[in-house]
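Give me structure tokens for this 130-residue protein.
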Amino acid sequence: QVELVESGGGLVQPGDSLRLSCEASGLTFSGYAMGWFRQAPGKEREPVAFISWSGTMTRYGVTRNGVSMKERFTISRDNEKKTLYLQMNSLKPEDTAVYYCAADPRPYRVDVDAQWGEYWGQGTQVTVAS
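Here you go.
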């Protein structure tokens, strides 16, 4: 049974940092591209960041204001620990969302398409408010 379990979310103030983690079990972690999505209340899910199986390729989403998420977010992975990370810096209220990790069996697939993501976590809430 495949499980992706996110952690590290919480309530923070604008300008703070958070590091999200996603621990995987039940799958050959190094055989999957991994990624983060987020969904704010009343809005569609949006791509955040993606990483190839080896970590050598990454892609980042674009905010609704047209700014690359790469400016403040960094995705990484540890295949030995079967864990995916998302370092988020200079958090803003508009980053408030549930953050989901996902695994895709195409190990080099860092460009999101309609089929992206075979397995999904339950999500972790990130709230940025003063």
